[in-house]
Design goal:
Number of domains: 1
Structural class: alpha+beta
CATH topology: Alpha-D-Glucose-1,6-Bisphosphate, Chain A, domain 4
Strand content: 35-45%
Shape: globular
CATH superfamily: START domain
Radius of gyration: 15 Å
CATH class: Alpha Beta
Number of strands: 9
Strand order of the largest sheet: 1-7-6-5-4-3-2
Order of helices and strands: EHHEEEEEEHEE
Length: 153
């Protein structure tokens, strides 16, 4: 089964990276529109990612699922369904140089045509997403689709 693996170095504290990845406010600041996250005290819960007017086709997209693990300043693991299979998203955070190494993995795709297509799209998409996260955290910049420009936050 195919997997997606990425890594990105972000010159920002683990605490700030973790807070950005584990809160609705964090996601909505740089990437989504109306994400909601509900976490239980044991680190599990639910995540709902939402985008409006996404891409050239201006699609509205909602996805998400169970939060499997949240370990403060170390990991955030959840599920979603970008194809026909439920996949697992893992963000692992490690101290590195003057910042944080974000180690990303997505697993759970089948070898069906629909899942292979979703995996290829998500492989590119998550690479772009991690770059947007880096630029947001390091420079305070976000891409605003509606105006097709980069804006300072």
């Amino acid at each position: 089964m195919p997997e997606i693996d990425h890594q990105v170095y972000i010159k920002e504290s683990i605490v700030r990276v973790f807070d950005t990845l584990t809160t609705a406010e964090g996601w909505n600041a740089w990437f989504t529109d109306q994400t909601s996250i509900h976490q239980e005290s044991d680190g599990t819960g639910e995540i709902r990612l939402k985008w409006t007017g996404l891409g050239k086709d201006k699609k509205d997209l909602v996805d998400g699922g169970k939060i499997l693990e949240t370990i403060p300043n170390k990991s955030f693991i959840f599920q979603w369904t970008p194809g026909e299979s439920v996949t697992t998203i893992e963000f692992k955070l490690e101290p590195y140089r003057d910042g944080t190494l974000v180690v990303f993995k997505e697993t759970g795709y089948s070898n069906s045509d629909n899942d292979i297509k979703a995996c290829l799209n998500c492989a590119v998409g998550w690479g772009e997403t991690l770059t947007l996260l880096k630029v947001y955290l390091e420079e305070g910049l976000v891409y605003k689709e509606e105006s097709k420009e980069i804006q300072q936050c």
